[in-house]
Amino acid sequence: MASVTNTYARALADVVFDRKLDPQKVLREVQSLNDLVASSKDLREVWETPSITAEKKRAVLDAIASREGISKEVRNFVAVLIDHRRVNFFSEIAKQFEQELSQRLGFVEAEVTSARELSGPERGVLESEVAKLTGKKVRAQYFRDESLLGGAVVRIGSTIYDGSVNGQLNRIREQIASSS
């Protein structure tokens, strides 16, 4: 499934950049359509039922695209998913498309977990440090976990930077255990 979602997400991102479309506008359209599909069981059933013809599914898509003001490129992309019987992966493709756009635009997604709520200036300093580390602009999501005791843990993809008090105590514990 990962290769399917990656392939289609990259293809849509290629269209966005090749045709010099507004990446944020296309992303909003994809997310809007994804929200609509997620909230409508009937729509999901129509698009995912093999016995309903692709023409009828595209007719439903055309009605939605017209009503929601969806661009021709996004409409055509979803039509390809319908024709190739991949529309059931739309939610995952939409998430992967967002990540692909972020990467191509030079952004990195970071999850920051701290023991307490960080102030605006603290967030700014942390994001600038992460930007220096990665060489990319940072989009951060913030979470709280009081068990960290202090400091923060930053996760970027599969890389974790643990600057928490809890993490430091664990490292000290491991050093003591390995030296005895």
In short:
It is built from 8 helices and 4 strands. It is an alpha+beta fold and 180 residues long.
List keywords for this structure.
180 residues, alpha+beta, Peroxidase, domain 1, 4-stranded mixed β-sheet, 8 helices, 4 strands, elongated
What does this structure look like?
The structure is a single chain. With 180 residues, the protein is of the alpha+beta class. The protein folds into two domains: 2-103, N-terminal domain of the delta subunit of the F1F0-ATP synthase (Peroxidase, domain 1); 107-179, no CATH class. The protein contains eight helices and four strands, in the order H-H-H-H-H-H-E-H-E-E-E-H. A four-stranded mixed beta sheet has the order 2-1-3-4, sandwiched between helices. Helix 1 crosses helix 6 (90-104), helix 2 (23-39) runs antiparallel to helix 6 (90-104) and helix 4 (54-68) packs antiparallel against helix 5. The longest helix has 17 residues, at 2-18.
List the helices and strands and how they pair.
Blueprint: H1 2-18, H2 23-39, H3 41-48, H4 54-68, H5 72-83, H6 90-104, E1 107-114, H7 120-134, E2 137-144, E3 152-156, E4 159-162, H8 165-179
Parallel strand pairs: 1-2
Antiparallel strand pairs: 1-3, 3-4
